[in-house]
Amino acid sequence: MSLVERAIKKMQQGAKDTAAEIRGVPGAGSQLPVYGAIVETGRHPVLTGVHEHVLPGRQIEINLAALRASGLLPPEHQERQIAQQYRQIKRPIVANATGRGTTKVSSGHLIMMASALPGEGKTFTAINLAFSLALERDLSVLLVDADVAKPHISRLFGLQDERGLLDLLQDRSIAIESLILPTNVPGLSVLPAGQRSENATELLASERMQEIVQDIGRFDASRMTLFDSPPLLLTTESQALAQVVGQIVVVVRAGVTSRNVVFEALSYLGEGKSIALVLNQSVAVSTRGYYYGYGYGESRDAS
Fold this sequence. Notes:
Blueprint: H1 3-13, E1 20-23, E2 36-40, E3 45-48, E4 51-54, E5 58-62, H2 64-70, H3 76-98, E6 110-115, H4 122-134, E7 140-145, H5 152-156, H6 165-170, E8 181-182, E9 188-191, H7 200-204, H8 207-219, E10 223-228, H9 237-242, E11 247-253, H10 259-267, E12 274-282, E13 293-295
Parallel strand pairs: 1-12, 6-10, 6-11, 7-9, 7-10, 11-12
Antiparallel strand pairs: 2-5, 3-4, 8-9, 12-13
């Protein structure tokens, strides 16, 4: 039975049991004002193992009030409800990454945020999930803008001119940690997309990309890394990125994205991945859990 056939079968068994529900929350709009700015904090070395790294000496000051006003964070009257939903969404993700209470997923600390098409609310979900993960006491989170064709997160935080992922892929002499920028949100850092390249797919599919994701984990073993990816049905970059992560979260906009489109997007992910769906802008009322994951192939074997 194929990946798509299994997904269809599972959804037919119970449509409510296939997705996280985030109700009444808009996705990221097409207009992208800037909600962050870089401030100088002073460069300082950090010793990890036998290697000394010099951190950037800069920090992203995220304007949380402006993010909330724009709809990229939940409004105050929905903050507690949405925060609880993201707690329920992240718990299986954290468990898969750490092996707490379940079998540890190989490369489970590397999570790809995906959608079938633009306008599903993927950027909204990525930002809010990153903020929720940053609340974990013994984990940190790195938000990577891997939507290299349209780097929304980089633009939102004023990082569109900063070096980032694509620069690391093209220049092995750059220290990875030198381009990762901490934020004023404790536990959260950001890696911008970097300078555009016509060969982005080949770069993301390269051996260098494998080295980068390994180094990200070596520097900070407690780090969860979220990759905001391009839409699955519009680019080949997302398919290349899917090969290096252990978990994939697919954001689906309720009442807009058809099942056929979702299943076609899932078919691009291949076998052996831990995949979950998040239903965005759902107006349905449910007392059941919000997070349901698809685990295919051998993805749940111990690494």
